[in-house]
User: Which sequence fits this backbone?
């Protein structure tokens, strides 16, 4: 957990995902706290989105002509 404490490789979160306020402050545990709704949260990178899976689901309903 101590190896990922650098914030140099990511942008700061600008808006609270719950109340959309900008009163975000970084937590020492690596997450963020919103002082408007008093929620604490963290942002996790899950990986790159697969373009093929997005196009496949979008065109799935256009098979019947
Ligand atoms: Zn909030």
Assistant:
């Amino acid at each position: 957990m101590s190896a990922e404490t650098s914030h140099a490789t990511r942008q700061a979160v600008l808006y609270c995902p719950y109340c959309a306020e900008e009163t975000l402050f970084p937590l020492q545990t690596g997450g963020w706290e919103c002082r408007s709704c008093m929620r604490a949260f963290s942002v996790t990178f899950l990986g790159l989105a697969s373009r093929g899976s997005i196009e496949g689901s979008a065109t799935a309903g256009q098979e019947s002509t």
Notes: The helical segments are 51-58. The mean pLDDT is 78. The CA atoms of residues 23 and 35 lie 6 Å apart. The first strand starts at residue 24 and ends at 26.
